[in-house]
Amino acid sequence: MTAAGAATVPPGRLFVISGPSGVGKTVLCARLIERFAPNMVFSISVTTRPPRGGEIPGREYWFWSIEAFERAIAAGELAEWAQVHGHYYGTPKAFLMEHRAAGRHVLLNIDVQGGMKIRAAFPDAVLIFLAPPSFVVLEERLRRRNIDAEETVRRRLANARVEMSFQKEYTHTVINDTLEEAARELEDLIRMHIQSGS
Fold it and tell me: Is 21 annotated as a binding residue?
């Protein structure tokens, strides 16, 4: 009990979802937020890349200038940040601290570099790696999206090989063969950690 007599709220958990481009992170994260809201919120990353068609600032990402991002790095305002595909991406520290203190769980969709930094800063974070059934399937999915130039697809595939090598560093791996099965497995893992508190 606090001095005021109110029960202390246990801090919320951090859940990190990482995986290569095209593996289904965005869709599955949206499912998880829908399933666990209002007790779970989505951490909206900041990035210096330009918005893609249909993206709205504050929904998918906050879009910052390179200068603003570098000022935030210098001020220590980011829990993690990295350069991916030639652009900065990062997670504002204040957002995580505010929601955890209120007892809400936070879901982060970040790359493996960011995942390792979150693990170092928050050792109780649960890291889940989302993997494709095979590299061939991943390439098919990336090309089927038809939103990137060939050069970008090739760069994403090259980065995917590096990202896949980080699987062993994650608490769990979920293979996204079918969306429904992957969503169910993710829900079960998150529910298990929330209930156990570990």
Answer: yes
User: Is 54 part of any known ligand binding site?
Assistant: no
24 labelled ligand-binding: yes
CATH assignment, 14-196: 3.40.50.300
**DSSP single-letter state for residue 104:** -
Q: 21 and 112 in contact (C-beta within 8 Å)?
A: no
pLDDT digits (tens, 9 = 90+) for 88-127: 999 999 999 999 999 999 999 998 989 999 999 999 999 9
Write 167-172 long-range contacts (CB < 8 A, 24+): 167/129, 167/131, 169/112, 169/115, 169/116, 169/119, 169/127, 170/18, 170/115, 170/127, 170/128, 170/129, 171/126, 171/127, 171/128, 172/126, 172/127, 172/128, 172/129
The reply, when asked if residue 20 is annotated as ligand binding, is: yes
Does 103 belong to an annotated binding site?
no
pLDDT tens figures, 54-85: 888 888 899 999 999 999 999 999 999 988 77
Please tell me whether 5 is known to bind a ligand: no
Residue by residue, DSSP assigns 26-67 as HHHHHHHHHHHTTSEEEE--EESSPPPTT--BTTTBEE--HH
